[in-house]
Specification:
- This protein has 102 residues and is an alpha/beta fold.
- The protein has a single domain, classed as 3-Layer(aba) Sandwich (Glutaredoxin).
- It contains 4 helices and 5 strands.
- A 5-stranded mixed sheet has the order 1-3-2-4-5.
- Helix 2 links the parallel strand 2 and strand 3.
- The longest helix has 16 residues.
- The two termini are 20 Å apart.
Amino acid sequence: MAIVHATSQSFAQDVSEGTVLVDFWAPWCGPCRMIAPVLEELDADMADLKIVKVDVDEHPAVAGQFQVQSIPTLVLFKNGQPVSKTMGFMPKDALKEFVEQA
């Protein structure tokens, strides 16, 4: 499944079904750029996981809705509901464990 870039308008629909990992990020953020290839790998490895990216500069209302204070912030959704949240860079194994534990 390809990684989806959500907008303020599409966000609710993008996270409405199944297990969705949302990456709140910005282009100028170093750790955000570091985690991007990890998310690509995770996307390839976990067929039942959907990954959605939200640019906090372009869509601050969505970031505010989930109290995103620092980036990258990753929020895991199950059927439209946020179930878990973590901040900062994580290696792939730790990120996979974060998703599987929720």
